[in-house]
Amino acid sequence: MCTVSLLRAVLLAMLSLSVGTGASAQASSAVSYSVEEGFGSGSTMINAQLTRPPGTLPAPAVIVLHGCAGPSNATLDCAKRIAGWGYVTIVP
């Protein structure tokens, strides 16, 4: 099983076993990060959706990975649900 599939399986297991906290997440915001590509090839911009949990920060963070087709509404809904559990989420 590839790493992305394994992470997706773990995330789906967490979602299916959760009873939820009842807390609603704050709205998502679009963010961009400049990252080095390595081997001197320069940098590139990565666009992502960042969702913060309600309440005070700091909070632990989770990277929510999407499938090969890119981020979907289901991916973003998953990130919002995890944020409702008290985590900062980012969907690249």
Please, could you describe this protein's structure?
The chain is α+β, with helices and mostly antiparallel strands and 92 residues long. 29% of the residues lie in helices and 27% in strands. The protein has two helices and four strands. Strands 1-2-4-3 form a four-stranded mixed β-sheet, with helices on one face. Strand 3, helix 2 and strand 4 form a beta-alpha-beta unit. The radius of gyration is 14 Å and the shape is globular.
Number of strands: 4
Measure the end-to-end span. Answer: 21 Å
User: What is the count of helical runs?
Assistant: 2
Strand order of the largest sheet: 1-2-4-3
| Helical proportion, percent range | 25-40%
Largest sheet: 4 strands, mixed
* Percentage of residues in DSSP E strands: 25-35%
Structural class: alpha+beta
